[in-house]
Amino acid sequence: MAVPKQIFKWGILGSGGICNDFSLALRSVPQSSTVAVATSNSIERAQVFADRHGIPQAYNNYDALLENKEVDIVYIGTLNSSHRDLVIKSLKAGKHVLCEKPLGVNAREVQEMIDCARTEKRFLMEAMWTRFFPSMVDVRQRLRDGAIGEVTQVDADFGVNIPRSVKRLWSAECGGGGLLDLGVYPLYFASMCYSLDKVTPPTAVHANGKLAETGVDVWTSLNLDYSQKSKESKEETDFRHALVNCTMAVRTPESWVVSGTKGNIRVHNGHISDKHTMTVWGSKREMKPEVVDRHFRTELPQLSAPPTPLSYVYPGSEGLCFEAQAVQKALEAGQLECEEMSLDESLVLAKVMDEARRQMGVKFPQDA
Ligand SMILES: NC(=O)c1ccc[n+]([C@@H]2O[C@H](COP(=O)([O-])OP(=O)(O)OC[C@H]3O[C@@H](n4cnc5c(N)ncnc54)[C@H](OP(=O)(O)O)[C@@H]3O)[C@@H](O)[C@H]2O)c1
Questions:
Q1: C-alpha to C-alpha distance for 220 and 362, rounded to whole angstroms
Q2: Within the chain, which residue ranges are assigned CATH 3.30.360.10?
Q3: 9 backbone φψ class: left, alpha, beta (φ>0; ψ -120 to 50)
Q4: How close is the Cα of 81 to the center of ligand 1, in Å?
Q5: Ligand 1 contact, 82 CB (< 6 A)
Q6: What does the pLDDT look like over 276-329, one tens digit per residue?
Q7: Which architecture, in CATH terms, is 134-299?
Q8: Choice among 95, 101, 262, 351 that is catalytic
Q9: In the chain, which residues fall in CATH 3.40.50.720?
Q10: Phi and psi, residue 300, nearest 5°
Q11: Is the peptide bond before 186 cis (omega within 30 degrees of 0)?
Q12: Ligand 1 atom with least separation from CA of 181
């Protein structure tokens, strides 16, 4: 007789834009069920959300949801500045946790969350959702296979014109600013390209940026040195770096390029990519190399029966299902971390962002 498959029961903390999108995307994830939602302080908002998404239980505070024994995994989609406390509370309540990016507003917070997850023996992952898109999985595989040789440079950007009305992004108290909200995407992409076998921190971080009058960064430019002193392949790997740009002032093309010694891969629409192009140079690095151009396209899933009037708030959110699937797969295999987005890497990158903020003079109240 076939063993019935485990159903993972999710609880949603928050009722804002990304919680809407995640709840909607979860509908297309097999073996998942959303059993509860909580807002910070309003049963009306929680009930409206629950009714919209067909969630049986609604709460007007996060603690009440954490007491619900039915909930296996908590998805945290609240303000950046609230992640640390909610992650720790959830882990201590015995829940597995998927928490929105950035995991914490600084490395100290991230370290505290990691320590707690390891003590409580519960799953924790930063919701770097686009790392699980089929397109990104394919890019990783090609890099691992050496399709473009040794990775030597990464160029990646993410810019969106963020109106002042989106207060959380312009507020230092909320852990806002371009770097933590938008810059994480190209930064994590660069890190992924250099961390295929093991998490590799940059050896130097140089940051430039422009601050708003509220003290958060409007734009940030990061120059990250990933040089390795490897004797065997000195020529190929000694000079490795990444250029990462983000801005809250303008939409940018998100055309991400990873260049290796044999060619490059261009990821179109960066953080929500469904297409990438690989160009392979001829046998040597001649001035006019033979070029092999190959295009790959992957599809985002469609909900089998999208119920009107539900719709996604953010572009590409259908793809949130891939990270949810990855979390469930890891849990099914008895793992407390996802290999593709490890806690060590979250910590390394939180330290990079701390250093970048230090150089730019961006201070959060949580840094004190
Ligand atoms: N993966 C992605 O593509 C993506 C996209 C956008 C944002 N995000 C991340 O998701 C998180 C939320 O972003 P969002 O765009 O969904 O924000 P949002 O729509 O403004 O929702 C923020 C949520 O935080 C909760 N909250 C708790 N205390 C609050 C306070 N004092 N003031 C305002 N809100 C408070 C709100 O509460 P209730 O619980 O009361 O409803 C609300 O549901 C952020 O960490 C952001 O970086 C991820």
A1: 11
A2: 134-299
A3: beta
A4: 10
A5: yes
A6: 888 887 665 554 555 555 666 666 665 554 554 578 899 999 899 999 999 999
A7: 2-Layer Sandwich (3.30)
A8: 101
A9: 8-129+318-337
A10: -80, 150
A11: no
A12: 47
Dihedral over alpha carbons 301, 306, 309, 312 (to 10 degrees): -10
Please indicate whether residue 40, judged by its CB atom, sits closer than 6 Å to ligand 1.
yes
- d(C-alpha 260, C-alpha 265), whole Å: 8
Tell me which long-range contacts 22-25 makes (C-beta under 8 A, separation of at least 24).
Answer: 22/75, 22/77, 22/317, 22/320, 22/324, 23/49, 23/53, 23/55, 24/53, 24/303, 24/310, 24/312, 24/317, 25/312, 25/317, 25/318, 25/319, 25/320, 25/321, 25/324
Reply yes or no on whether the pLDDT at 71 is more than 80.
yes
Q: Residue 273 has which token pair?
A: 């990519």
Reported as a single tens digit per residue, the pLDDT across 177-187 is 999 999 999 99
CATH 3.40.50.720 fits 8-129+318-337, yes or no: yes
Report the distance separating Cα 37 and Cα 200, nearest Å. Answer: 37
What are the residue ranges of helices labelled H in 27-101? 43-53, 62-67, 83-92
